[in-house]
Amino acid sequence: PAYFISPTTTGSTQVNAVGLSEETGGFWVVARNLEDAKKQAESMFQKTHGKSVEYTIRRDEDVLDTWFSSALLPISCFGWPSPTFTPSVAPTFSLSPSIGPLPPLPSANISNNTCLFYPLSVMETGSDILFFWVARMAMLCTYFTGVPPFEKVLLHSIVKDSQGRKMSKSIGNVIDPTHVIKGVELQHMLQMIRDSVLPQHEKTRAMKDMQIEFPNGIPECGTDALRLGLAGYAQLGKRIHLDVRRVVTARHFCNKLWNLSRFVLNHVERLGAEEILTADEIVAQAHSLPFPELWALNECHVTVETVSNALNQFDIATAAEATTQFVHLQLCDVYLEITKFTVNHTSARQDVIVGVLVHLLELSLRLAHPIIPFVTEEIYQNIPHRLRSSNSPLLMTCPYPSADTTRLFSNPQISKDMELAQSIVTAIRSIKSTNKLKLKEFVEVEISVNGQPNVVETVRSLSELISVQAVCNIKTTYHNTSPATLAASLPSPLSSSVTENVTVHVTLPASSRIVNTEDIISEINRIKSRFEKTGTNMEALKAKMSTKNYRERVPSEIQQLD
Most-buried pick from 49, 194, 320, 348 (CB within 10 A)? Predict the structure, then answer.
């Protein structure tokens, strides 16, 4: 402990003689106990005056330095060293003799002082304080309680700037998190550098870098977007080269989730919550639901399973990516587009569609809540109680989705069938785009399938779904008809192979067909131009991917797109 020594004989000569000012009126010593502190005080006075001096001694209430005080945090915050402090598990190591045995373990009830939050299952921290803090917590808490303070340690990445430099006030490259959350203008950031204590040459360099990095300042992104943006970096190693543009992308996802909720809840309000299928009713009808609903629920199960496995392995980035991709690609881009026409323009099965949408929305909110807690909680509070799958008033206290609870909807074959349908839709849209047709422009389509009778039946059963998405009319699905033979019988068809055995034939409207030599030459030149442009883009992409630190600095989802 530290002890404060105060000479009772006043006088500047005596006080200054021991290296003190008259303002303090004493000095500090660090000793094992009171007797040791007195010996140090006597020694000091003997050294300076050659005789004893009357003094008073006071032990400081704060007995440990910063790191040692922090090392006791896991137990001190729950009342230790009070004899009522009891870990939630029995001691596994021998206790310090000076502390003595712990009292018997009572039943796990908050009211009887059992500490349900000691020990922790996981301690999440940074590698830079592993020995300053984490090792001390492990040693001291185990020494005093016989129970290690945590089972596992998860080390997060260290945030650096987009150039890979450690954020430091001395080089002026620190990004204030509140600036990302609330937004800030470039001039404000430059003024902060001007007002700093950096040398002038460092200010000049920092301002130049700031103008290059943030020419338009930092847009307002919000807390959730910052959290989601950082979560995506968790798998990239020990360093995060923070790019604010990635946080902006995360903000766009939060906006998309909000807009999805507005669409769904507006239809809930229009139909009335009492007319919509609840989560229990959806489960009861699990095997009789239409194909689009079964597919969406199956994709949700796959996502829940992926996220659960990722979190069990502390792979936060994969969990975040799986959740966002389900909302963005499966729920919004596919299922919502398939059902939007039915919900907006017909009265058929609206109770089922809106019920499934609410169920999928709520599961998505529960999956995403640990990463983006604020927007998800706000949306959850607007879901009618009848349509919630949990009675919890707060999303934060809802049970986290488990693959066991969604396994009922698992159906790998449905996923394969939808993949085929989406490939056909993509092929039709690609032909439209290539021929400068609007995606909403109606076309006639024939499909040929070689072999595999089951594929023929699948395509026929999904023809309505394909027609809605691709805005087309599937006139006939041919079995074991040569694509060349079928193309020859159609007026100016354009064909595209979907798989090895499935080919799509699109008949363009008369106004879009190539009917003379000039059109043919124009089409050849257009294709040649696209080919050359594609080659240029490929070379640029190869150069980009071969640059130093590409794998380390470029986000994983962008690498996959590249």
Answer: 320
100: left (phi over 0), alpha (psi -120 to 50) or beta: left
Instruction: Return the closest-CA partner of residue 397 out of 377, 417, 413, 423.
Output: 377
What pLDDT was estimated at residue 6? 85
Q: Are the C-beta atoms of 260 and 336 separated by less than 8 Å?
A: yes
Q: Burial code of 463-479, b = ≥16 C-beta within 10 A, e = fewer? A: bebbbbbbbbebeebbb
Q: Are 380 and 261 in contact (CB under 8 A)?
A: no
Query: Could you tell me if 223 and 374 are in contact, meaning their C-beta atoms sit under 8 angstroms apart?
Result: yes
* SS3 state at 122: strand
Interatomic CA distance for residues 238 and 327, integer angstroms: 29
Number of helices (H) and strands (E), helices first, in the chain? 24, 13
- Give the model's pLDDT for residue 327: 96
Is residue 424 exposed (0-12), middle (13-18) or buried (19+ Cβ within 10 Å)?
buried
**pLDDT value of residue 343:** 82
Q: Residue 79 and residue 17: Cα distance in Å, rounded?
A: 44
Kindly report whether the global pTM for this prediction surpasses the value 0.90: no
Strand ranges (E), 79-197: 86-87, 114-115, 120-126, 150-156, 158-160
Sign of CA dihedral 189, 195, 196, 201: positive
User: 67 burial class (0-12, 13-18, 19+ CB within 10 angstroms)?
Assistant: middle
CB 508 within 8 A of CB 492: yes
- Provide the residue count of the chain: 562
Question: Contact, 447 vs 504, CB < 8 A?
Answer: yes
DSSP state string for 250-312: HHHHHHHHHHHHHHHHHHHHHH-GGGS--HHHHHHTTTTS-HHHHHHHHHHHHHHHHHHHHHH
Please answer whether residues 146 and 102 qualify as being in contact, where contact means their C-beta atoms are separated by less than 8 angstroms.
yes
In the prediction, which pLDDT does 395 show? 95
Divide the 562 residues of the chain into consecutive groups of 10 and give the mean pLDDT of each group.
Answer: 78 45 67 90 79 82 76 87 79 57 40 70 86 92 89 84 72 83 91 84 85 88 94 69 85 96 94 91 90 94 95 91 94 91 77 94 96 97 93 92 91 92 90 82 85 83 89 79 69 70 81 58 76 84 79 70 70
d(CA 265, CA 258): 10
pLDDT at position 357: 96
